[in-house]
Amino acid sequence: MNEKDMILEAMKKAGEPLNAGKIAEITGLDRKAVDKAMAAMKKDGSIVSPVRCKWEPAKK
After folding, report:
1. How does pLDDT run across 3-26, given as a tens digit for each residue?
2. 3-state class of 40 per DSSP?
3. What own/partner pairs with CB < 8 Å and gap ≥ 24 does 12-15 have?
4. 28, 16 in Cβ contact below 8 A?
5. DSSP letter at 43?
6. Which of 9, 41, 51, 57 has the greatest count of CB atoms below 10 A from its CB?
7. Residue 44: CB atoms within 10 Å
């Protein structure tokens, strides 16, 4: 499972918007790796921000 998949899985399990710090805590990934993966995910539209600084999977 790659970082993006781990991040999306953590978001889905949480059932609420999460910030990068909480995602890093849940997945055990390094915070910088989470930030980098999330930046790519923001660009490709796989995550959206319903609340400032918190993210959730995009509903496609």
Report:
1. 999 999 999 999 999 999 999 999
2. helix
3. 12/57
4. no
5. H
6. 41
7. 9
